[in-house]
Amino acid sequence: MAGNKKPVSVLVLIHSPALEVLLLERATRPGFWQSVTGSQEADEPLRDTARREVEEETGIVVAPQDIDDWRLENRYEIFAEWRHRYPEGVTHNREHVFSLCVPREVPIVTAPLEHLGFLWLPWREAADKVFSWTNRDAILLLPSRYRFS
Q1: Which pairing describes strands 92-101 and 8-15: parallel, antiparallel, or unpaired?
Q2: Is 3 domain-assigned?
């Protein structure tokens, strides 16, 4: 049975001013680390999707304007094991990249059904640890977008 999930999502890189990147370990795939991700709901503005997903997955509450829209879109093939969530025939997703700079000490509360835990890593190490090429490529762009503090 086909699902109704919209094939439009956000990737939100949460990082500290020193470019340490917050990674979350997927509950359904232990050992798979990623940044905050999530699908757009109905006609929700993408910046609102990013804000909602940050809050749901980390407990960090911010205003939509605090999230930086990179105006970068990736298109990738949806893993076969997850295609049942989408309408029949949908094989690709459009992912929009955002970021959020927060103090390293910000409290993180993960959603237990989605993530096993979290860690902060320097950006190069984070890029090596994530399983998604779009996540890796976005992390590698961080230094060109932000100055080290």
Answers
A1: parallel
A2: no
